[in-house]
Write a structure and sequence with these properties.
Blueprint: E1 4-15, E2 18-29, E3 33-37, H1 44-52, E4 59-64, H2 70-77, E5 80-82, H3 95-103, H4 110-119, H5 135-146, E6 153-156, H6 165-182, E7 185-190, H7 193-197, E8 202-207, E9 210-216, H8 217-223, E10 227-232, H9 235-244, E11 250-252, E12 257-260, H10 267-276, E13 281-287, H11 291-299
Parallel strand pairs: 3-7, 3-8, 5-6, 6-7
Antiparallel strand pairs: 1-2, 1-4, 8-9, 10-12, 10-13, 11-12
Helix pairs in contact: 3-4, 5-6
Bound molecules: adenosine-5'-triphosphate.
């Protein structure tokens, strides 16, 4: 069993009469990229702030790297980095100069700064000043500055928010690289499940302060899997045709239904083959349960993006 990095147990946070977090329990193990998904106001930032110790909790317990005492947590938080409240970037300095300023207290070498610039795909920014950076570049530099202290656990609040599609892809690759190259465990948030599903390998769904579901990547994939639904009164004949077509990933659901999990784009030719073999097809079509539909189904609401 891999090491537990964060264990939040029944954490509640109340603002006045509003319960921003309601008994939230989350466990994050080393190497996970844990995606916290929820619409605006669901409590994502509040949860991240409690983990970082930026705000106090009203109920529950937080354990980090096995530490839960006040002193132990203080110590554990030194192994963490976060993008919730990052040091300001200096607009008139270059990426390298900014990192030098952040590194001044930490005794970080130029070589490590080189590594960080490379890791964040900022190595070619040369003399360009931060004020002329794109939002994506600025966000990557902000993450680089949190990496100066060499954290083992990184918390990123909506890291892809506001980025254009290519910036999103770049950020995704960088986060995956951080996990692969440096073994950093990551907790990140988004209000788009579709977006998170491409980065994270574990998901927690927050809704109105409550954690309503937790899933692994595999569970999410099977919950939202796309397939062809075939309805026929002649299941046995249909199976023979599918086998002949070399289709292996299918499931006979009951006496009249087969789910086909491959060749989703081939509905027409599957239908043709069945009909040519005199199979009586009453219905055939693709079910596409998109991730956002799944999210809405769970939360029973609308997303305010
Ligand atoms: N300092 C505060 N005082 C009062 N209420 C607050 C405070 N901070 C957050 N809240 C409320 O707590 C709830 C959760 O906010 P939070 O920022 O954690 O949501 P979120 O899921 O991160 O959403 P967003 O993506 O909009 O930041 C919201 O209803 C918000 O208005």
């Amino acid at each position: 069993m891999s090491e537990t990095i964060l264990k939040a147990m029944n954490v509640s946070k109340i603002y006045g009469k509003h319960k921003a977090l309601d008994k939230v329990s989350i466990e994050i193990k080393r190497g996970m990229i844990y995606g916290l998904i929820g619409e605006n106001g669901a409590g994502k930032s509040t949860f991240m702030r409690t983990v970082m110790g930026l705000i106090s909790i009203d109920e529950g317990d937080i354990e980090l790297f096995g530490e839960s005492s006040t002193k132990g947590l203080q110590h554990a938080r030194r192994k963490m980095g976060q993008s919730i409240e990052t040091p300001a970037l200096y607009p008139d300095l270059t990426a390298r100069e900014n990192l030098r300023v952040q590194a001044a207290n930490g005794g970080v070498s130029e070589r490590e700064i080189d590594n960080l610039l490379r890791l964040m795909s900022l190595e070619d920014t040369g003399k360009k000043k931060v004020k002329n950076f794109s939002l994506g570049m600025r966000q990557r530099l902000a993450i680089a500055s949190t990496l100066i202290t060499n954290p083992e656990f990184l918390i990123l609040d909506e890291p892809t928010n506001g980025l254009d599609p290519s910036g999103i892809v770049e950020m995704r690759e960088i986060i995956q690289r951080l996990v692969k190259d440096r073994g950093i465990t990551v907790l990140l948030s988004s209000h788009l499940l579709d977006e998170l599903s491409q980065i994270a390998n574990h998901y927690g769904i927050l809704h109105k302060g409550k954690l309503i579901s937790e899933l692994s990547r595999e569970q999410l994939a099977s919950e939202t899997r796309q397939y062809i639904e075939l309805e026929t009164s002649e299941i046995h004949k249909a199976v023979v045709v599918l086998d002949k077509m070399g289709i292996k990933e299918y499931e006979v659901v009951n006496g009249t239904e087969i789910n086909i999990y491959e060749r989703l784009e081939d509905v027409a030719s599957i239908n043709r083959s069945l009909v040519l073999a005199n199979v009586n097809v009453s219905r055939i079509g693709t079910t596409r349960q998109k991730l956002e539909d799944y999210f809405l189904q769970l939360t029973g609401g609308t997303i305010h993006a």
